[in-house]
TrEMBL record:
Residues 314-330 have a biased composition (Basic and acidic residues). Its cofactor is FAD. This is Photolyase/cryptochrome alpha/beta domain-containing protein. Residues 60-198 form the Photolyase/cryptochrome alpha/beta domain. InterPro entries: Crypto/Photolyase_FAD-like_sf (IPR036134), Crypto/Photolyase_N_sf (IPR036155), Cryptochr/Photolyase_FAD-bd (IPR005101), Cryptochrome/DNA_photolyase_1 (IPR002081), DNA_photolyase_N (IPR006050), Rossmann-like_a/b/a_fold (IPR014729).
Length: 577
């Protein structure tokens, strides 16, 4: 088989397999984290912080922007920081910290880092028009990052620090340290708030006050909280502009002259890849909201299936009368189709916080002119809102059961599974040359676009862990390394679902049939033909097309994987679904 249509942007398999044991916490450390989750430790420290009154009034208020809240509009911490600045008659400053060691530890993709930098540049220009400086620093080692932040605050003579909470274990422990240092100094009051989820972690619990580990009852308990007071869907006020006088203050005026780095060392993109990412995933809040509007108001198009600009011309401007046939209305029936842009493709923008889940739900209510949130299984809007609830669910799981971010399976009974460590098979899967058409198309889409349709993510994930019997953590790691929408909670949740080791998983004996799944998701074969050019001339559709594609791939494979010889290809006898 031929290699991937684009050079693989990740490390080779041999290093991956050796690296994996270092990513898995011991049972003792994982159990300790679960008994006293870092999120609740942080909330306890924040209660102490709220009682701390800075020794002096201070001369500035700082909003610490993170990788998951790259927006100005509807940003809770940013809004609160602005209100404090207005109250104190002090300038509002924005800090962003680039931490390469954290990116390495969390397998961040160079594509995601590039996307972050592009969005920072847009926001820096936008905020400068409001006389608010956005200042970016790069810091290593990550262990001293809290000290560096407090040092910057002291340099700026800041009295208040605001930030939105990140839910990964390392980030929570970092924030705990920042708060402790601030309390010790007596100079800074820290306020960290929930912003990522529609309903905050800790609010959706069972009658026994425990976190849900199954999605359906979680959804039933999640939905009533939408009507809580204060309104969880309320749009946070935009930050107020600083006074022009900030430009006359030497300590702050220079911040406007600083620049956002062109790249982070070790996370550079090749020119061709960078151009592809700029085509498929443009930066800016305006882009995210325009993509949402198209999803709500316009029809899907086969021409938008692949690596193209999501806002390309060729579709009429969104009109309300078009909505009855729009992608969101058809979402219930067409969401698993991969041969057109049937989904919103907003995952990179949600993962980076360029648009909020709240904004997405508000938009669906406006579309249907409804006073209540539709989260039913019977409508397209309801199904899409359920996807936003899934995003909340996995963040809640991460917050309540932090061991899932420490390399441990949620279901510890599967922790001793002996996985295969076949390096050739893993690399073939990464490159999209397994010989299974839908799997190869999906992996090549990820390698080319930095994104993959969710249905195909499930197909390729289950193929890796249940056909090749390779450790799900290696697949989880690879996705984080190449996808532009890499999100630890959702990525881990999806991989553990596929491996039957996580919360609410498929039974261990359920295995996706890649041929049946291909027929359902890509009935015309256009998706496979697009991403696997060796098959571009294979005609037909349905079962015969899929089997001809498999024969072509097997015949042209120079290093055909042995397991292919053992897999029956009939749609009737391979696997269960």
């Amino acid at each position: 088989m031929q290699v991937s249509t684009s050079a693989s942007p990740t490390k080779k398999t041999r290093r991956d397999i050796k690296f994996l044991p270092n990513k898995v916490a011991t049972v003792e450390n994982a159990t300790k984290a679960d008994k006293n989750p870092p999120l609740f430790q942080l909330e306890h420290v924040l209660k102490i912080c709220s009682k701390v009154q800075p020794a002096s009034k201070g001369e500035a208020v700082v909003y610490w922007m993170r990788m998951e809240d790259l927006r100005i509009h509807d940003n809770r911490a940013f809004s609160l920081a602005s209100a404090q600045a207005v109250k104190d008659n002090a300038p509002l400053l924005v800090l962003f910290v680039l931490s390469p060691q954290d990116y390495i530890a969390h397998d961040r993709s160079a594509r995601r880092i590039d996307f972050t930098l592009r969005n920072l540049r847009v926001m820096k220009d936008t905020l400068a028009k409001q006389h608010i400086p956005l200042y970016t620093i790069t810091h290593s080692p990550r262990t001293t990052l809290p000290d560096r932040v407090l040092s910057v605050l002291a340099e700026w003579k800041a009295s208040h620090l605001f930030a939105n909470i990140e839910y990964e274990v390392d980030e929570l422990r970092r924030d705990i340290k920042v708060c402790e240092l601030a309390n010790q100094s007596g100079q800074v009051q820290c306020t960290f708030v929930h912003d990522k989820c529609v309903i905050n972690p800790g609010k959706v619990t069972t009658k026994e006050n425990k976190a849900y580990a199954v999605y359906s009852p979680f959804l039933r308990a999640w939905l009533p909280h939408i009507t809580d007071k204060p309104d969880p869907l309320a749009c946070a006020p935009d930050p107020k502009p600083n006074d022009l006088s900030i430009h006359k203050l030497a300590i702050y005026s220079g911040l406007f002259d600083s620049s956002v780095p062109a790249f982070v060392e070790g996370f550079e993109l090749k020119l061709e890849d960078a151009e592809q990412m700029r085509t498929c995933w443009k930066e800016g809040e305006d882009v995210a909201h325009a993509m949402l509007s198209r999803f709500l108001h316009t029809r899907s198009r086969a021409s938008q299936m692949g690596a193209v600009d999501p806002l390309t011309e060729g579709v009429k401007e969104p009109q309300k009368e078009q909505s009855k046939n729009s992608r969101v209305v058809k979402y219930k029936d067409e969401r698993d189709r991969v041969n057109a842009d049937t989904t919103s493709r907003l995952s990179p923008y949600l993962a980076a916080g360029i648009i909020s889940g709240r904004a997405c739900i508000r938009a669906t209510m406006e579309l249907s002119n409804a006073k209540k949130v539709d989260a039913s299984r019977d409508t397209g809007i309801g199904r899409w809102v359920q996807e936003i609830a899934w995003r909340d669910f996995y963040v809640h799981v991460l917050a309540h059961f932090p061991r899932v971010s420490m390399g441990r399976p949620y279901q510890e009974k599967f922790s001793n599974v002996q996985w295969e460590t076949n390096e050739e098979h893993l690399q073939a899967w990464k490159d999209g040359r397994t010989g299974v058409p839908i799997v190869d198309a999906g992996m090549r889409q990820a390698n080319k676009m930095g994104w993959m349709h969710n249905r195909v993510r499930m197909i390729v994930a289950m193929y890796l862990v249940k056909d090749l019997m390779i450790d799900w953590r290696l697949g989880e790691k690879y996705f984080m390394e190449i996808l532009i929408d890499g999100d630890l909670a959702s990525n881990n949740g999806g991989w553990q679902w596929s491996a039957s080791t996580g919360v609410d998983p498929v039974p261990y004996f359920r295995i996706f049939n890649p041929y049946i799944q291909s027929h359902k998701a890509d009935p015309t074969g256009e998706y496979i033909r697009y991403f696997v050019p060796e098959l571009a001339k294979v005609k037909g559709k349905g079962e015969n097309f899929i089997l001809r594609c498999t024969d072509v791939l097997t015949a042209t494979c120079q290093r055909c994987m042995n397991h292919l010889q053992r897999l029956p290809k009939s749609l009737d006898i391979l696997h269960l679904s």
